[in-house]
Amino acid sequence: MRTLAFPLCILATIVLLAAVIVLSILVGANPVPVHAVLDAVRGNGSNEANYVIWTQRVPRTVAGLMVGAALSVAGALVQSYTRNPLADTGLLGVNAGAAFFVAVGIAFFGISSPAGYVWLACLGALVLTAVVYTIGSAGGETAGPVRLTMAGVALGAVLSGLTTGLTLTNPDAFERMRGWSAGSLLERDFSVLLPVLPFLICGVVIAALVAPGLNSISLGSDVARSQGVDIRRTQAFVLVAVTLLAGGATAIAGPLVFVGLVVPHIVRWAVGVDQRKIVMGSLLFGPCLVLLSDIVGRIAVPPSEMPVGVVTAFVGAPLLIGLVRRAKATGL
Amino acid sequence: MKLENRLRTGPTPSLLVIGHDRTNILLDRRAAVVAASAGILVIILMILAVLLGDFPLTISEVMDVFLGRGEALVRTVVLEWRLPRAMAAVLFGAALAVSGALFQTITRNPLASPDIMGLANGSYSGMILALVFLGGSWPMLVTGSLAGGLAAAAIIYLLALRDGLQGFRFIMVGIGVSAMLASLNTWLLLRVDLDVALLASAWGAGTLNSITPATLIPTGFSIMMLLCLVPAVSAPLRQLSLGDDAAASTGAAIGPARLAAIVIAIGLVSAVTAVSGPIAFIALSAPQITRRLAGTAEIPLGATGVVGGLMLLVSDLVAQHVIPLTLPVGVVTVVSGGLYLVWLLVREARRTT
User: Fold this and answer.
1) Which end of chain A is flanked by fewer CB atoms within 10 Å, N or C?
2) B183/A174 touch (CB, cutoff 8 Å), yes or no
3) By the CB < 8 Å criterion, does B31 face chain A?
4) Which of B300, B281, B327 is nearest to B32 (CA)?
């Protein structure tokens, strides 16, 4: 497979990311002229511009950066670890667990704000991944990825079924859940974002640490063992990282599964199969995709907005399809 | 529980030796036992499905109906309501399971199933569009969902076609199209009124409530036709599960077999989804459950069909008679199938430690 020069890729992605961040501050459903935006950024704007920029667009941009980076890195880890190109961040039950806890919170405890959802979603993701891990890793390391995948799929299905049942019999919960499950970056202010940030940072650090081990594992468990890689420990670290990253991101924005699936594929096509490069590339390219989708969503259907989760698929899927058609189709 | 005891004894060593007839017969025998046990359960549960309900019947009353006697009301209950529904559950479950088994064998990926391939989402989009723009009459919904499913399949096929049909590319394109359609559905559901969205979601979870003899006969007939075609492609597919190169070296005609299998799999899912909505998870889990029960390395197609039929029948009985709320059968399928798969995995884990 032909790959592009790594430094060039990273540089281009950084430039793209910077451009997208600037756009994200400038563009919105609530049109503010460019000079007013600049005034607000410098700290001497009108009240209205200040409000739009500092309480809406800036937190939203930060949320997009965090969510995009976290989901993409988590997706890269999951795909590499399970050796399955169809794996996404929902695979280990993160989304199903988060959604179930949020649905229960809405239906039985009357929780109705994004700030409340964050903690429920986090808790749900953590609890479910712990159960998936317990079942998936019970048979020793040889059982590894395949059983873990099946355990995640099976438990995820159980909880998503329960969530559907719960919402279909409770119209109020259904009403709120259809908003949450679309995935959105609206009204995620810093009081919601900052507490999640440490989780995501931990996740990224762990991801960077396990990436070399994943390179060895991709050559087969025997080779990995002979190279001194502790497979069980790598598995545990991958799971912790994915839970922190995907759980945190889902807590912020709701389930944006497709990001974690598509970004690693695009990055892999550009930089090759080295996990260290893929993690790094995903970290930078993921936010571009999410922010770009969010910007499109803000102006696609005026006067309202389209949730970022809906747009992500329409931005990411054509990219993915184009890639599979172009490149000599490869697995991992 | 004969099946239980067989499981306790642990797996027969399932060596996969090509051309070694004895091993193949061993594998087939165990799969046949699974199929037979599941088949017996299906028959018992079908009888139960006809007897149970708000208007309970006795066996002699039902026998009267089949002998052409019996009261008009009993005849209606048995022939118009309960029997079609039970038959639909078995047939649809079998169709979904075989379709999933074909997809998983072609792609050699346990995550590959028509659920994630855009077909169900396409049907769902078609149904929502029909509901929103053409009014919610039942024939409209079926037409809409059938058109949506077929359109999705056609788009995926056209986008994936390049130097022939390659399994991995096909499924990645499917996932892409599926993601877009799912987003479209989410978006549509956000725009419509709450009651419309609730109605659409109930259908979207998969339900057998609207089964009548008039809908069952054409669907059932097409499903049976497609299922009859499966044995013709299953032999080359077995080779295919070893990888393209190995299959080619044993002389199997990969291209035509794969295309035929994909067409059959899509046909099976479309037929079911058009009538009952996207019933999730059977296509994904039935092959995996059967493979674990039969202790085979590859997915036994026949046994998978019977197990799939059993799964949907059990789920429908539970949805109708056990749960006090009215839930679509799809919800019960997902929960019960998921729990069963978890249980199998836990057993498997215990056995290996």
Assistant:
1) N
2) no
3) no
4) B300
From the list A91, A155, A331, which residue is nearest B168 (CB)? A331
Decide: A56 and A187 in contact? Cβ < 8 Å: no
CB A86 within 8 A of CB B109: yes
Kindly identify which residue of chain B lies nearest to residue A179, measuring between CA atoms: B190
Q: What is the DSSP letter of B328?
A: -
Domains of chain A listed by start with CATH number:
6-326 (1.10.3470.10)
Q: Does the distance separating the beta carbons of A142 and B205 come in below 8 Å?
A: no
In this prediction the pTM is 0.79
CATH topology for B2-352 is ABC transporter involved in vitamin B12 uptake, BtuC (1.10.3470)
User: Higher confidence at residue B27 or residue B137?
Assistant: B137
What are the tens digits of pLDDT across the range A218-266?
777 778 788 878 877 888 888 889 888 988 888 888 888 788 889 998 8
Torsion sign across C-alpha atoms B62, B68, B74, B80: positive
Of all residues in chain B, what percent carry a pLDDT higher than 70? 83
Q: How confident is the model at residue B251 (pLDDT cuts 50, 70, 90)?
A: low
Cβ neighbors of B152 (< 8 A, separation 6 or more) are B118, B119, B121, B122, B123, B125, B177, B178, B181
Which chain A residue has its CA at the smallest distance from B166's CA? A329
Burial degree of A18 (CB within 10 A; 0-12, 13-18, 19+): exposed
The verdict on ipTM greater than 0.90 is no
CA atoms within 13 A on the CB side of A102: 34
Q: Does residue A212 have a cis bond before it (omega within 30 degrees)?
A: no
Domain ranges of chain B: 2-352
